[in-house]
User: Fold this.
Amino acid sequence: MQGMSAEANEIYVELCPENLLRALRTAQAARWVKMKLTNKHTPCLTVEVELPSIGSCHRLAVHDIPITIIKRRDWADYAEPEMPDFDVSITMPTLKMLKNVVDKMKNINNFVSLSANQNGEMKLSVETDMVSINTHFKDLFNPAWRRDAGDAGVGESSRSSQGDPAQFAQARIDIRRFAQFLSSQQVNPNRVICNIVNNRVVHFYLMHDDVSLQYFMPVVST
Amino acid sequence: MPGKMLSTQQADDDSANVFVAKLDNARNVSNILKAIHFKDTATVFVTSQGLKVTVEDAKCVQANAFIQAAVFHHFVLTQDQATFKVNLSVLIECLTIFGSGAGGSTAAASLKMCYAGYGSPLVLMLEEDGVLTDCSLKTLEPDEVLDFDFCSTNVINKIIMKSECLKEVFNELDTSSDILQILMSPDAPFLQLSTFGNAGSTHSSFSKESDMVEAFQCTQTQSNRYKMQLLRPSSKALALSARISIRTDARGFLSLQYMIRNDDGQVCFVEFFCAPDEEMEEPDH
Assistant:
């Protein structure tokens, strides 16, 4: 299989992550892993795994994962989303502590209000007729972002310079989704950054050594 | 500014509150409360002695947890007594907000509890590793609690034993049986727990000579039946306890007292009262 042209040498494919996970699980002790796109009776992502054995001959496992090719006119749907124009950017506290708190809050209400400011403070709140609970995290780090200032080229713009740094930006999100997000982070990220657009969206940015993951969680209105 | 807000709250505390208690390990309170958590709401009585938390079901069973003032390192009550009702499930969730500690976490959350009097919320402040949680729980109009009129002078039979072996018996009780029959007698079989289920009857007997039995004061043979459904919640308290005292009075009412040792080695008590299932013939007084 080939890309569109030498300049746009890209192929977009869609696959079931469970299949890839299963194929890679056999590759944990592999001598090497080769991945390639093949056209068997259907387009496939072929994962070849050579496994060591005690004897002189090695074992070769081949997984063919069926894939769907994405048409070029749909590529735009898969573009990396732009970083939202956030009001507050803050590093998250340890996810383990956060997960404990959120798991308890989950039993109280379906929504949690996540708020933070540029003073390194973050707050989680749930409220019902019966109880209101607020958990305060402090001494967190507010990263400064070098970002594109609109179309006018690159400029240094740190949000902290605008407005009161103690001002909280707030987002009311689905607590079950948030809990799911927290429990799915088995791969320990180096740093998790939370960007909040007041009453619009929360953007989680997980930085690993050579991978970054982004999550967007929309605000649920009252 | 939450920082500022909290500091002003703190300043108000001692003047406005009728009850303030602090302790270093919230688990010492939450564990005891879990032992009586078989209904959503509980009535809390605060006296200079400490906290008494009462849970009732079906007007037939009552559980009381006693947390003495000594368990707290700071305990101030400015009036004779304070009584309120709270949602126990929510209270336990709040106390264990940083995790119940079962998951291997050794850190303990410190707790401050405040109550500003009738109609005010119960305010909890928990802190662990610099993370602060404040909870404000609505308090409800307290209900009248049952008086079982269980008087130690009317006690006919009393056995104090180590909880260990009873834990096994309770875990293996035949759940298809509607009732649990408790027989206590000065003669053999001394103490016998029986169930009558679909698969047949079971009897577990303890000799008074058993190492597990620490005190045996039975004056007459008495056999009473109790609804299994009502007694089952007591197994939570049993699981936590080190010793248990089983008593019955002349009317066949059952009192189970559990001695529970907390993380700091202090002793707390949980007590269950249960009415017998059948009308027993009233003995002549």
